[in-house]
Write a sequence for this structure.
């Protein structure tokens, strides 16, 4: 009809032109007779005087031809549309028939529901079965039978039902028998005295299996009773019964001669809350989601084999443990003497992923050893490294980061990389602990937080063994990028007293392996020989999902760019090391510390449940050089900024050990992040003059300034005062005398 309308639009101007010609002819014919053209009857248009009739006949022919042609075209178009519609309907209806005819080419019948019904209604009686005795070795089981037998366990049928296991010449009649007999090999049946139980067990497994043979993609999401049609081997057949331990195992498994392996975990196809990454930020978000939505179902997907755990003890307290089995228990004593595990919660806190869908009160499930490799933002789903797809309603990306390595080490070859550790995970701790017990020398490259903590920890161990510990870095002193020069030099001497050989201003030129020793050539010509290297040179945010998800990565700081609510998209949040957020006081930043992971994960979890809160919290970080020296910091702490330090004499209470004894926790941020500072009271004790260059820096406060405004604060051996520091930075005011500001921290009180 649309085409007819287009044809008429083309013919209409021609028809209107013909009509105009007719009217003009009538007017010319009427004027000589003294008639008014407007009064000429319409009937005279076709019977006027000689000279005007030809055009009228042409007009009638054109209009008639147009109408006739349009009608014929419309009729043919409608008829053709009806024919195409009918052909399409026939094609769609024939698809199921084609699929039904093609399916029998697979090892199993295409209609397992019918097989189920037959087997449920007709179970062979023990008297009519010809089966070998338990002592006789069973004949080889056909592949098809092995694929079906594991899924034949359980619900006892009535004992008086007819027999399905027909002889071979009658196998063409019952579909259930055809599946077993197709391979032209004998059927393995239980002996008569045991036939009443195993056949009963076989029916339930069939009911639990999917109605049709799963595709390879579906096999990556194992159903409650794993189906192995796509790989019908004896080993696969042995796996299925183990998925249902309460049920008796079929006899065919016992004679297969293959050890059974545990069935793989069923992955939920959908979860309301999906958390990518199994670190501190993910756990904090899960706990926050459950606090606001007690019935929430949360799934954490992590590529690590471990449940969520805290990372700081990996480079601190675990190394000072006296327990020789600490690498197995992962329990440690805090500086206050209390013992705890590195894991946030025991395994009993979580529910199994396959139970998440059916959990009445929700819960938190952790899918370990799985990596999200692709993210479909529009479709609200992700793909795992085994091709499994999981859809979600809300998603958090907390993928953290990966340790950086030196390019000279990456280019040095396999021999060097095998003797190099990039420290980040539990496996790295276990491996480094084992290495340090079997070598004579180890070199730590890096003078930052991680490198300095590991150097002090291994230095303590060197007192008990002949281990040589070397730390090298390009700066002039330890923590040279963070601490002012005078404090960096003091810290360097502290590290040396722990038994560490420090090499400053060291730029690595090359690393080679000779005679099973690593030779580190520095650019100034110095040569260092060692057995093992620990590269602690920073962290690279993990933004592997940015490309597939279409998320923006910050070009200056790295990480996913998020708004004030930590959102990257309308239903996607980012927290932890991978989030590049905007600080209303200090500008856009990215922070790689435990407390930031706790706070950002908690806020992201709240916003995922509808809180819509902005991120304003100033996160802190801390580092301990053993149990006697530690510091906490907040804001921008950069040694290139102007600094003002106020120090006082330390007492026995001014150590990390004493601080944890007072707070009751070794992870100090867990206690301080809940506190707020409203109106700090300054100490009335008179403060001494600023002591920026005194040799003994017992305790003090270091202020970092930008445009005369405090943007960062380090509390040196001053603990449980972080809310005050946070308030000073939040106020953003200029201070004429920072010595007076230091009184707020009560550093001059004994």
């Amino acid at each position: 009809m649309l085409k007819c309308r287009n044809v008429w639009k083309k013919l209409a101007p021609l028809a209107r032109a013909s009509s105009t010609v007719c009217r003009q002819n009538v007017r010319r014919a009427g004027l000589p007779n003294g008639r008014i053209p407007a009064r000429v009857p319409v009937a005279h248009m076709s019977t006027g005087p000689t000279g005007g009739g030809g055009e009228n006949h042409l007009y009638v022919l054109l209009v008639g031809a147009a109408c006739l042609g349009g009608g014929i075209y419309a009729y043919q178009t409608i008829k053709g549309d009806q024919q195409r519609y009918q052909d399409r309907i026939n094609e769609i209806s024939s698809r199921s028939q084609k699929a039904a005819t093609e399916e029998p080419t697979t090892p199993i019948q295409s209609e397992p529901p019918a097989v189920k019904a037959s087997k449920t209604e007709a179970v062979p009686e023990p008297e009519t079965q010809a089966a070998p005795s338990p002592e006789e070795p069973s004949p080889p089981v056909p592949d098809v039978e092995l694929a079906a037998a594991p899924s034949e366990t359980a619900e006892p049928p009535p004992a008086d039902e007819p027999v399905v296991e027909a002889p071979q010449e009658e196998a063409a009649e019952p579909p259930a028998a055809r599946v077993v007999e197709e391979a032209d090999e004998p059927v393995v049946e239980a002996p008569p005295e045991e036939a009443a139980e195993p056949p009963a067990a076989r029916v339930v497994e069939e009911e639990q299996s999917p109605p049709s043979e799963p595709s390879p993609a579906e096999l990556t999401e194992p159903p409650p009773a794993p189906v192995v049609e796509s790989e019908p081997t004896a080993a696969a057949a042995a796996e299925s019964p183990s998925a249902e331990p309460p049920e008796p195992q079929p006899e065919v498994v016992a004679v297969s001669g293959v050890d059974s392996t545990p069935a793989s975990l069923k992955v939920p196809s959908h979860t309301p809350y999906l958390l990518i990454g199994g670190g501190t930020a993910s756990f904090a978000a899960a706990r926050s989601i459950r606090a606001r939505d007690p019935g929430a179902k949360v799934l954490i997907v992590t590529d690590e084999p471990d449940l969520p755990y805290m990372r700081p003890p990996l480079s601190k307290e675990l190394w000072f443990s006296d327990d020789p089995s600490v690498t197995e228990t992962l329990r440690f004593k805090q500086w206050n003497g209390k013992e705890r595990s590195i894991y946030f919660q025991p395994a009993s806190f979580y529910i199994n992923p396959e139970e998440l869908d059916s959990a009445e009160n929700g819960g938190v499930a952790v899918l370990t050893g799985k990596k999200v490799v692709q993210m479909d933002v529009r479709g609200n789903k992700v793909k795992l490294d085994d091709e499994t797809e999981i859809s979600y309603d809300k998603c958090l990306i907390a993928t953290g980061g990966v340790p950086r390595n030196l390019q000279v080490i990456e280019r040095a070859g396999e021999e060097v990389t095998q003797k190099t550790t990039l420290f980040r995970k539990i496996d790295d701790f276990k491996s480094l602990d084992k290495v340090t017990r079997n070598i004579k020398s180890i070199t730590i490259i890096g003078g930052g937080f991680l490198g300095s903590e590991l150097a002090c920890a291994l230095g303590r161990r060197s007192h008990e063994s002949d281990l040589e510990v070397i730390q090298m870095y390009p700066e002039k002193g330890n923590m040279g990028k963070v601490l002012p020069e005078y404090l960096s030099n003091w810290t360097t001497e502290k590290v040396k007293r722990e038994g560490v050989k420090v090499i400053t201003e060291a730029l690595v030129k090359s690393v080679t392996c000779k005679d099973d020793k690593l030779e580190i050539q520095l650019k100034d010509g110095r040569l260092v020989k060692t057995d093992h290297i620990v590269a602690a040179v920073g962290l690279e945010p993990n933004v592997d999902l940015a490309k597939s998800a279409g998320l923006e990565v910050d070009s200056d700081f790295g990480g996913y760019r998020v708004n004030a609510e930590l959102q990257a998209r309308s239903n996607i949040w980012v927290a932890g090391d991978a989030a590049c957020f905007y600080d209303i006081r200090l500008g856009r930043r990215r922070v790689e510390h435990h407390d930031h992971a706790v706070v950002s994960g908690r806020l992201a979890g709240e916003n995922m449940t509808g809180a819509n809160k902005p991120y304003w919290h100033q996160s802190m970080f801390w580092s301990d050089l053993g149990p006697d020296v530690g510091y906490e910091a907040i804001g921008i702490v950069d040694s290139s900024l102007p600094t003002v330090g106020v120090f006082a004499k330390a007492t026995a209470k001014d150590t990390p050990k004493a601080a944890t004894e007072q707070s009751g926790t070794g992870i100090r941020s867990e206690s301080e992040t809940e506190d707020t500072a409203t109106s700090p009271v300054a100490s009335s004790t008179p403060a001494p003059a600023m002591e920026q260059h005194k040799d003994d820096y017992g305790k003090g406060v270091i202020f970092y300034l930008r445009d005369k405004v405090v943007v960062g604060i380090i509390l040196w051996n001053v603990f449980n005062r972080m809310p005050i520091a946070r308030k000073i930075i939040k106020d953003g005011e200029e201070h004429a005398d920072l010595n007076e500001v230091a009184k707020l921290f009560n550093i001059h009180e004994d």
